[in-house]
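Marked as duplicate of an earlier ticket. Keeping the data here for the record.
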Amino acid sequence: MPAKDWKLLHSGPPADYDIFQVRRHRYRLEPEGRERDFIVLDANEWINIVAVTTEGQLVLIRQFRHGIREVTWEVPGGIAETGEPPEQAALRELREETGYAGERAVLLGYTWPNPAMQSNRLFTYVIEDARRVGDPLPDPFERIIVEPRPLNEIPGMIAKGEIRHCLVIASLALMGITATRQ
């Protein structure tokens, strides 16, 4: 079905919820003429960082996630500030969340977190030769545990379900790291 079959009739004013805005779009599907409202979440771009140390460790973090009320294994990441280039956001987020830094962030690619209802993208960067340069600088409501792991352990962590965050798994796949059954 071509995108031209969907005619945007109206886009309502956004409701602002700090990290995203909710907008109601009214569409008509042609040629049938059926109309329906769709909810869209608009947010700044997201960033994930696959940071690898000179010792071959992947810099992982663990933190509490309110949606599932559990602690998850993740790669560092976050929201790009308005107007902030994604590459710069990657370097900033790595430093803030982990205390690690690298010389440059190389774009692996981007994905759409949930294009059915979200307008933003998730950019994944690799930062090689990451090194610890100081203490993490988390936001006031973040409690992050930094736990680097050998790269060769990551496929097993995915296969065993230790790493379940789909956006983290997508970012690792862009790096060529996927689950392997033991």
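See parent ticket for discussion. Residues 86-98 form the longest helix (13 residues).
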